[in-house]
Design goal:
- The complex is a heterodimer.
- Chain A is mainly alpha-helical.
- Chain A has one domain (about 1-175, about 230-290).
- Chain A has helices at about 1-10, 20, 25-30, 30-50, 50-55, 60-95, 100-120, 125-130, 135-180, 195-200, 220-255, 275-290.
- In chain A, α1 crosses α4 (about 30-50).
- Chain B is mainly alpha-helical.
- Chain B contains seven helices and no strands.
- Chain B has helices at about 1-20, 30-50, 60-90, 95-125, 130-165, 165-190, 210-220.
- The longest helix of chain B is centred in the middle third of the chain and has 33 residues, at about 130-165.
- Classes of the chains: A mainly alpha, B mainly alpha.
- At the A-B interface, α6, α9 and α11 of A face α1, α4 and α5 of B.
Chain lengths: ~290, ~220
């Protein structure tokens, strides 16, 4: 348990995703520690989510809701991972960094751990409001907002790591092209996108980062190549983020209730109807319209 | 077995991504690209046809698994002669092999991206969405996959364009022709999701009508 939290702490401090650590993704991001960590952190946030039920329901129903929320919150993230993992792997393999199947999975689990660690740290805020308000719509909107903050930070972590990996992959690709004795004809032209066999004369083989370049200096061929590769990887990542967000939201809707409406009996799952955006929109309107 | 399949897919993705021959991966042959288009297209087709599986609707899973790769391949077959002649007229005949490979790579990228999105389509179906939302979901998945495919195809085409700017014109011509023919092909091969009140069938009644004329009719309110 202590090892697990030490690993999560290292992840949050960025020690497990620096350049040196990423070379051995299996060591730096061990799934055997991070999957249980995601379950524990999710259960912690789920427990705080259930405080509203504890404050507003009979003890039996509240205990059932607490158990359900603690089980379903980690499930929400792990099932969303299962649904969106194939697309991230394929998109990344086609357009982004050269990350294999298992390393991609480990990286995604790590992003979920960051997400859940941030969410769990905000659990007491949810618990505090659960005890101090009777408004169900307020609690729905608050929890969506808190989870969205955790999600944004988790995705930010994933984005930064993938960008770094994509930059490294593009540099390696550039070096490989430069070392190819006979580059394919379609890539051996004097163009910014051409094989660097002819372009890198006089250039050092050191890697470039995608940091802004002073405007007075023209971009080197390597920089153009790397920026192009990383730019398309970034575009595809943002497309994937929209999918991930929509899937996560809908998965949450399918697995609801997490908080438990005070006037409804306890149930593990509610009937399938509408979608997340309609549901949260209704709660938001109710809240803005003075709903309690 | 699963590990071998994963390695095969990884090697294919590497080749399609344009890293073939550089990191040890072999360039995908036209045959392996065609196999990828058929298998991945069928996989997404099966997922697309699996909306509201009740009664006889399971037939749509099989029908659409057949029709999805058919849509891509048949559209390609119709457009290819014109593309070949246009390239020849533009003086790009010598590069036609490389151009064709770039196009097949783009199509393989499209179907593989679609197959990877199949779990998301299934999740949306599982949420109990209606017919219109199911159509919109698939439209969204095709849009996302098309963005990925474009990036991959343009990456392969870039070298050709660097050789000769006319290749850019050819690429645009391919995309315009493909979209034009593909729209009609999709109309003829419908249903892909299947209206709940219409009996599942391989072809819908009135399949061999003109999609564009129908659109004009709808717009003009006739």
């Amino acid at each position: 348990m202590r090892g697990m939290f030490a690993a999560v702490d290292g992840l949050l401090r960025g020690k497990r995703t620096d350049d040196a650590a990423l070379r051995d993704n299996a060591q730096a991001l061990p799934a055997r520690l991070f999957v249980p960590a995601a379950v524990v952190l999710g259960a912690i946030y789920g427990f705080f989510m259930a405080w509203y039920a504890i404050a507003n329901r009979e003890m039996d129903a509240a205990a059932q809701q607490a158990l359900a929320s603690m089980v379903k919150l980690p499930m929400l993230f792990l099932l969303t991972l299962a649904v969106t993992f194939p697309s991230l792997y394929v998109f990344n393999a086609l357009v982004g960094c050269r990350l294999g199947l298992k390393p991609t999975l480990r990286l995604l689990v790590s992003a979920i751990v960051v997400n859940l660690a941030v969410s769990a740290s905000m659990g007491p805020i949810s618990g505090f409001f659960a005890l101090s308000t009777k408004s169900y719509p307020f609690m729905v909107v608050l929890n969506v907002a808190l989870l969205a903050v955790g999600g944004a930070i988790g995705l930010g972590f994933l984005f930064r790591t993938l960008r770094r990996l994509a930059t490294r992959a593009a540099n390696e690709e550039y070096d490989e092209l430069a070392n190819t004795p006979e580059a394919p004809p379609m890539q051996s032209q004097a163009s910014p996108f051409a094989a660097p066999a002819e372009l890198n004369a006089g250039q050092s083989a050191q890697s470039v980062r995608t940091a802004p370049v002073p405007s007075w200096r023209p971009l080197t061929a390597r920089e153009v190549f790397v920026n192009g590769r990383v730019g398309s990887a970034t575009l595809i990542f943002w497309v994937w983020v929209i999918l991930y967000g929509a899937v996560g939201a809908q998965m949450g809707w399918l697995l609801r209730p997490f908080i438990g409406h005070p006037s409804m009996p306890f149930t593990w799952f509610r009937p399938r109807m509408d979608n997340f955006f309609i549901g949260v929109g209704q709660n938001l309107l109710e809240l803005l319209g003075g709903g309690r | 077995m699963a590990g071998r399949a994963a390695n095969l897919v990884a090697a294919l993705l590497d080749g399609i991504a344009g890293r073939a021959g550089r990191g040890g991966a072999s360039a995908p042959s036209l045959r392996s690209l065609l196999v990828a288009i058929v298998v991945a297209g069928a996989l997404y087709g099966a997922a697309m046809g699996a909306w509201r599986l009740e009664g006889e609707r399971w037939k749509l899973v099989v029908f659409v698994a057949i029709k999805s790769p058919l849509l891509i391949m048949a559209t390609t077959a119709v457009v290819l002669p014109a593309f070949f002649v246009l390239n020849t007229v533009a003086g790009l005949r010598d590069d036609f092999g490389a151009a064709l490979r770039a196009i097949f790579v783009g199509q393989a990228g499209l179907t593989l991206a679609l197959a990877s999105l199949a779990p998301i389509t299934q999740l949306v179906y599982l949420s109990g969405v209606g017919h219109r939302a199911a159509i919109m979901t698939n439209a969204a998945m095709f849009t996302v996959a098309a963005v990925v495919a474009q990036v991959v195809m343009v990456r392969h085409y870039r070298g050709l364009i660097a050789c000769n700017r006319k290749h850019l014109l050819m690429l645009v011509a391919w995309l315009v022709l493909y979209a034009f023919v593909g729209t009609q092909m999709g109309w003829m091969l419908r249903p892909f999701i299947g209206h709940p009140q219409i009996e599942p069938a391989f072809f819908r009644e009135g399949a061999f009508t003109n999609a564009y004329v129908e659109v004009v009719r709808i717009v003009m309110g006739r």
